[in-house]
TrEMBL record:
<dbReference type="GO" id="GO:0030686">
    <property type="term" value="C:90S preribosome"/>
</dbReference>
<dbReference type="InterPro" id="IPR015943">
    <property type="entry name" value="WD40/YVTN_repeat-like_dom_sf"/>
</dbReference>
<dbReference type="GO" id="GO:0003723">
    <property type="term" value="F:RNA binding"/>
</dbReference>
<dbReference type="InterPro" id="IPR001680">
    <property type="entry name" value="WD40_rpt"/>
</dbReference>
<dbReference type="GO" id="GO:0000462">
    <property type="term" value="P:maturation of SSU-rRNA from tricistronic rRNA transcript (SSU-rRNA, 5.8S rRNA, LSU-rRNA)"/>
</dbReference>
<dbReference type="GO" id="GO:0034455">
    <property type="term" value="C:t-UTP complex"/>
</dbReference>
<protein>
    <submittedName>
        <fullName>(Mediterranean fruit fly) hypothetical protein</fullName>
    </submittedName>
</protein>
<feature type="repeat" description="WD">
    <location>
        <begin position="504"/>
        <end position="546"/>
    </location>
</feature>
<dbReference type="InterPro" id="IPR036322">
    <property type="entry name" value="WD40_repeat_dom_sf"/>
</dbReference>
<keyword id="KW-0853">WD repeat</keyword>
<dbReference type="GO" id="GO:0032040">
    <property type="term" value="C:small-subunit processome"/>
</dbReference>
<dbReference type="Pfam" id="PF00400">
    <property type="entry name" value="WD40"/>
</dbReference>
<dbReference type="InterPro" id="IPR046351">
    <property type="entry name" value="UTP4"/>
</dbReference>
Length: 721
């Protein structure tokens, strides 16, 4: 436990290090460059949708379904398709986060999928060597054609720019097909390696019909698709090349595989005597991952990569930048909940959750080595910053409960009430409410009683939140996006009463990604994936009604929080902007777009806490940093003005078009922010208040993730194995 002093106020931080997640490897990546979306499929069958317009943000998660596997994905406009070993082609509903259409293909398991440039035809390659063509034009998905059966499985496929030809890769061969007739026009044999068949794992087809293939020899071969002739080969890796990608200009080639290095080749013009020709020359290499790399995608100068270690890596394809960003295989927040009264901590995993009782301290410092103590005292006297040190625990953290969902369904959300008496969790199909009686310290007598006979409105949810007094429960329905409000009644028998339903469809037209209830219970705030932030308030002390929609911003909202003592909302956005908005006066009281930490351009703020002891303090964190910002008076009134012609203009909903929410432009009321404190972490997942002077910081040690991975590709270094 850490202790610190800030302006005479000590804040203790519980550093939780027992949140041990299992790494889920990345199977495939599909990049939508028009809408700045990235789809990632994981080994458990789940699909993640990331917003990549600014700093990458996990926007939506499609949970795994029983027996589902995703081996390949592709975008067709705003539509997302996936294929897997079940032999089904699936189109996903990105609003309801469930399958929209399914269709079985000829040939059992499906290994690859691609869409032509016009988005009208979709091709899939199967285990038994069949290639199926589907018509997806005009928002449909109909079987269209079946190609001649080939020998062996079809592992990769790509349309050419015209859509008239399809190139496929399999064992020891690359074939070019005529899409209309379904016949193979050319078969290009890949030479055997030490009497072993060579597997073509990945393909790319350029606009001039140049074919680039990565194979099991560790080579990238280049072919002329018009003449079906081999042009050049490069030994890029010491083991299998599992994935290749090209940039939009088609002058950069990226490849990676079992050897976890991303090699970048540049297309170069070479002149010899009077002959000019192009060839691929080694340009750069990036070391992003610790294990096999299975998928690559490119958008602009950014290279998206993923593989066995489960990390989403983002690196640069140019020499101007060497920045590498990594996003761990973590669950979408909130995955941590705290009971402030009983000092309980809930940790959510994929299909189960744990309840822990946190340790306590009386403020005694932890004993350290004498040399370290002297160094610490010297540093303390020299520094004008807050005093920090380790505190000894009176009682160690204790695990009270581990609860698995029925049939191991993925848990979408889970929470514990502030008084520690109620537990609620939801999967995609079911929701459960329990009465929780925690064990006395040292005794194993934890009790969990399921509540039955609940109202019919108590259905599966995407967000579950208790009020601060534990008397109300709020659910967000996944299909209708309605907010259901329940009252917890204790009149001799435990019961749950339905109060009201709040309609959100008019105000938020996409998935509700963030949800918060004020400590006083007066305000409800919901942020959607469509960049909207909607607020509801108590009307006449009885029911909630729509209060306002925040001015829409161009970047997606990544974190929200409401002041406990003031009707003010603080929000953070993926481009680094942070704002504070007065919900009563309907005006901005603080606005700042400055980057306060080194990685703000790559990692967005994932959580916001507000200090009840000092309302000028705003505590934020992302994956790598915790930092405290302080509101300060602005030096001029520019922050309150609004330019009608600004591209990033904040626009109101249509029903209020022509009107602007009033802005306070007085220097005394519009504030900016300054950096007050910063602390680095390794994978800081969550930060919660346990009391007015205690914080709980939940982190994941990257070493625990690496230890669960299979052995990495072995190679000699400096003459030793």
């Amino acid at each position: 436990m850490n202790g610190g002093i800030a302006r005479g106020e000590r804040t203790k931080t519980h550093n939780v290090r027992f949140y041990n997640l299992t790494p889920r490897s990345i199977q495939s990546i599909a990049c939508n460059k028009l809408w700045h979306k990235l789809a990632i499929s994981r080994s458990d069958g789940s699909i993640e949708i990331w917003d990549t317009q600014h700093a990458s943000y996990l926007e939506k998660v499609i949970p795994k379904s029983p027996g589902n596997s995703v081996e390949g994905m592709v975008w067709a406009g705003e539509r997302l398709f996936s294929v897997g070993l079940t032999g089904e082609l699936v189109e996903w509903d990105l609003l309801l986060l469930k399958p929209r259409r399914k269709q079985f293909a000829t040939g059992n398991a499906i290994w690859c999928v691609d869409v032509n440039a016009t988005g009208t035809d979709l091709a899939i390659g199967t285990e038994e060597g069949y290639i199926n063509i589907f018509d997806i034009d005009n928002d449909q998905m109909q079987y269209k054609n079946l190609f001649d059966k080939q020998e062996g499985r079809v592992l990769c496929c790509k349309f050419d720019r015209s859509g008239e030809f399809l190139v496929t890769g399999s064992v020891s061969a690359i074939r070019i097909w005529d899409v209309k007739s379904g016949h193979a026009l050319h078969k290009m044999t890949v030479s055997r390696d030490k009497r072993k068949d060579v597997i073509v794992w990945s393909l790319q087809v350029l606009s001039d019909f140049t074919i680039i293939a990565g194979d099991s020899r560790g080579q990238v071969s280049v072919w002329d698709g018009k003449m079906a002739a081999h042009l050049e080969s490069h030994q890029v890796l010491k083991a299998d090349v599992l994935t290749v990608a090209v940039n939009e200009e088609e002058n950069m080639l990226m490849c990676s595989g079992i050897e976890p290095i991303i090699r970048i080749y540049a297309k170069t013009k070479i002149k010899r005597e009077e002959i000019e020709y192009h060839c691929w020359v080694k340009f750069l290499q990036r070391s992003v991952h610790d294990n096999d790399v299975k998928a690559l995608a490119c958008e602009g100068d950014r290279i998206f990569s993923g593989g066995m270690d489960g990390y989403l890596g983002i690196s640069s394809a140019s020499k101007r930048s060497s920045t590498i960003s990594k996003y761990g295989p973590f669950l979408k927040n909130p995955c941590v909940a705290v009971s402030t009264k009983n000092r309980l901590l809930l940790l959510r995993y994929t299909n189960y959750f744990e309840i822990w009782r946190l340790g306590s301290t009386d403020g005694r410092p932890q004993l350290v080595a004498l040399a370290d103590d002297k160094k610490g005292n010297e540093t303390k006297h020299k520094s004008n910053g807050p005093e920090r040190g380790l505190l000894a625990l009176n009682a160690a953290p204790e695990k009270l409960l581990e609860f698995k969902s029925k049939k191991e369904e993925p848990i979408v959300c889970a929470t514990i009430s502030p008084d520690g008496q109620w537990l609620c969790y939801s999967t995609q199909k079911n929701i459960r409410l329990f009465r929780f009686v925690s064990a006395v310290t040292g005794k194993n007598d934890t009790q969990l009683v399921r509540i039955r006979g609940l109202p019919e409105q108590f259905k599966a949810a995407t967000h579950v939140t208790f009020s601060s007094d534990s008397k109300r429960l709020f659910l967000v329905h996944p299909d209708t996006r309605q907010i259901h409000v329940f009252s917890i009644v204790n009149n001799g028998s435990t019961d749950l009463d339905f109060i009201e339903t709040i309609e959100t469809a008019k105000h938020i037209r996409d998935v509700i990604s963030l949800f918060a209830v004020s400590e006083c219970g007066t305000y409800i705030v919901a942020a959607g994936a469509d960049r909207t932030i909607a607020v509801w308030s108590i009307y006449q002390g009885k029911h909630f009604r729509h209060h306002l929609n925040m001015p829409r911003y161009s970047a997606i909202t990544t974190a929200i929080a409401i002041h406990a003592k003031e009707a003010r909302l603080v929000a953070a956005f993926s481009d680094g902007k942070i704002i504070e908005y007065d919900l009563e006066e309907m005006c901005f009281t603080c606005s700042e777009s400055e980057y306060f930490v080194e990685n703000a351009e790559t990692h967005c703020v994932t959580n916001i806490l507000l200090d009840t002891r000092n309302t000028n303090n705003i505590i934020l964190h992302n994956d790598a940093y915790l930092y405290v910002l302080e509101k300060v008076a602005a030096t001029n009134g520019d922050l309150g003005h609004h330019d009608e012609h600004d591209d990033d203009a904040l626009v109101l909903p249509k029903k209020k078009s022509g009107k602007k929410l009033k802005r306070i432009i007085s220097d005394s009321k519009v504030s900016s922010l300054r950096l007050k404190f910063k602390k680095s972490y390794e994978h800081l997942i969550s930060l919660c208040w346990l009391s007015s002077d205690e914080l709980v910081a939940v982190g994941v040690n990257p070493i625990t993730l690496i230890e669960q991975l299979p052995d990495v590709f072995k190679q000699k270094k400096f003459g030793t194995a």
